[in-house]
Amino acid sequence: MSYTPLKRTIDIILSLFLLTIFSPIIVVTAVAVKLTSPGPVFADTPERVGKDGKLFYPFKFRSMILNAHKLLTTDPKFRKLYQEYKRSSYKLHQDPRVTTVGGFIRRHSIDEVPQLINVLRGEMSLVGPRPYYPDELKDQQKRYPKTRSLVREVLSVNPGVTGIWQVSGRSEVNFDKRIALDARYAHKMSLWVDLKILAKTPWAMVSGKGAV
Q1: How far apart are CA 144 and CA 141, in angstroms?
Q2: 22, 58, 93, 175: which could join 140 in a potential S-S bond, CB 3.0 to 4.6 Å?
Q3: 145-165 burial, b if ≥16 CB within 10 A, otherwise e?
Q4: Alpha carbon distance 193, 99 (integer Å)
Q5: Distance CA 35, CA 32 (A)
Q6: Is 64 helix (H, G, I), strand (E, B) or coil?
Q7: Which of 4, 1, 2 is nearest to 156 (CA)?
């Protein structure tokens, strides 16, 4: 079996297995999110850019206040925060929108466990590049014009629940370096590379290094 169908087979089998293993954490997280802040269990996450530029909605546990992204981009009181957000590669190290429970589940990537559903739907893979926001790719390519060819490489494959940037410093890695890492993965991806990234992911989750 060639790499692509083998990768898809592994994605399906491991996603079903992980959803079963994580089911107690999923239940506890859902209850904690619901009881500690008003709003739905899942985040109203903006669309992300998938393979070949196709947009999709990633499933994530809600770690912020309701309508967090809309408030960031439209509410005048968040104007300075939004400018900081764009300057810092679309990440905030001190984000007042994050809830108490949200801070914990974001630090340990528990909020992203529901993305296993996206894997089963074929919108994501277990291992792949980070799923970027459309406006993030547009703005950051203006800031780093030399990354345009790298972005095309990254969008040639499915984004991943985990990937090389997540196990290489996560949010501490700026966009130009992050997209270069993702493009390198997209160009040289193999079963061996996927297995190495999967092996490093549990420590990245437990340690929370670089997470925001």
Answers
A1: 5
A2: 175
A3: eebeebbebbbebbbbbbbbb
A4: 35
A5: 5
A6: strand
A7: 4
Q: In 3D, which of 89, 45, 48 has the Cα closest to residue 180?
A: 89
Helices (H), 22-159: 23-36, 68-74, 79-87, 100-107, 115-120, 134-143, 148-154
Q: Output the DSSP codes for 7-39.
A: HHHHHHHHHHHHHHHTHHHHHHHHHHHHHHSSS
What are the pLDDT digits (tens) for 29-59?
999 999 998 989 999 888 999 999 999 999 9
C-alpha distance from residue 154 to each of 16, 158, 189 (Å): 26, 8, 11
Other CB atoms within a 10 A radius of the CB of residue 75 amount to 12
Sorted by sequence, the CB contacts under 8 Å of residue 126 that are 6+ apart come out as: 10, 11, 14, 15, 119, 160, 161, 162, 194, 198
Q: Each residue of 120-150: pLDDT tens digit?
A: 999 999 999 999 999 889 989 998 999 999 9
One-letter amino acid identity for 140? Q
Residue 67's region, left for phi above 0, alpha for psi from -120 to 50, else beta, is left
- pLDDT (tens digit per residue) in 71-105: 888 878 778 887 877 777 677 777 888 898 999 99
Q: Which residues have a Cβ under 8 Å from the Cβ of 75 and sit 6 or more positions away?
A: none
